[in-house]
Fold this protein.
Amino acid sequence: MEASSRLELEQAHAELWNLTFSYLKSMVLECAVQLNIPNVIHNFGGSASLPNILSAIPVPEHRRPYLPRLMRFLVVSGILSFDSPTLGEGMYQLTPLSRLLVDDTHINGCGSLGPFVLSQTTKYHVSSTTYLSEWFKGEDGVGPMAAEMPFKMAHGTGPWGALGRDPQFNKVFNAGLGSNSRLVLDFVVAQYGDVFDGISSLLDVGGGDGSTARAIAKAFSHVKCSVLDLPIVIADIQPGDGLVDYIAGDMFSSIPPTDAIVLKYVLHDWNDDDCVKILDQCKKAIRSCKPAGGKVIIIDTVVGSPLKEMFEAQVTSDLLMMVIAGGKERDKQEWHKIFMESGFKDYKIRPVLGYLSIIELYL
Ligand code: SAH
């Protein structure tokens, strides 16, 4: 064998090894959040030794000898950095990635995305992915009994049914998406305030724990914000300060009249026919309130970023939607198709945060 092809084979073998075990990366990230490691390092001033970390994490004596190996993996994965190559010695530091997992808003502007990590690495998510090949082979049968997505093969119901069945999953899921909303809305509010000009009422449909609506209400006091979500999600929201109103309902049946509707990470959960049904309800709600100047504000992925990492995030999210919800991430042409089918006349797409876009949809 030639030296170059031998090197290529060795590299390919190592890559295959790393890819085969890459699920460990997700679970180690989840573990780091559960053990509160990013906050502990932050509390030590952004740089902490192993004894520092051990003094502040919930790991009993007999498990402590294992920790250096977890820490080394966190460093190799880019979640932390380390200033000494010796196992177990030196100082661990936060990286730009793990700064996003720190509670202190002075560090990242939005609070920790740790809850987001926990909300997407649940046993529901992880076990669903193990059904992917069986689902592709159609081993769940054909016709009305076939599962729309691997999630349903694994759990006998879709994600919203699972939220209704399991109060803990409901809590973790909504809190996680809420933490991500705070980051996204920081960018939306700073970059795209013009979107909310001329609007006096706004309804965040499928708005989860209300983080998005709250951020809009705080930034634009002329907009009265409300959230519509499933009864199980709304029932879990603590009575708050009255900044936003919460409405329990079903977006497929009826959406109350409003000047503007936000659909953030909602349409990607659904197939094209369901998206058209949702947009049709949105149209009715806006038309009865503000026939001229009303709009739907979609915050979602538009697949096709020219940047490799952003494109990877978009494609990963697309696969997640296929596994979890039976939905998809759409490119420009796919969005265009559902907008035209649901009878909207015009739209404008602008980028937020690299992998995400804000789309204004007009009647
Ligand atoms: N907009 C939030 C949540 C997105 S997840 C965010 O950006 O983080 C999708 C949301 O749609 C969930 O909160 C889910 O409970 C809600 N949902 C699903 N089916 C719904 C329905 N039929 N009517 C209203 N909300 C629904």
Residues 160, 177, 181, 206-208, 212, 228-230, 233, 250-252, 264-266, 269 surround S-adenosyl-L-homocysteine (CB under 6 Å). The chain has a mean pLDDT of 95.
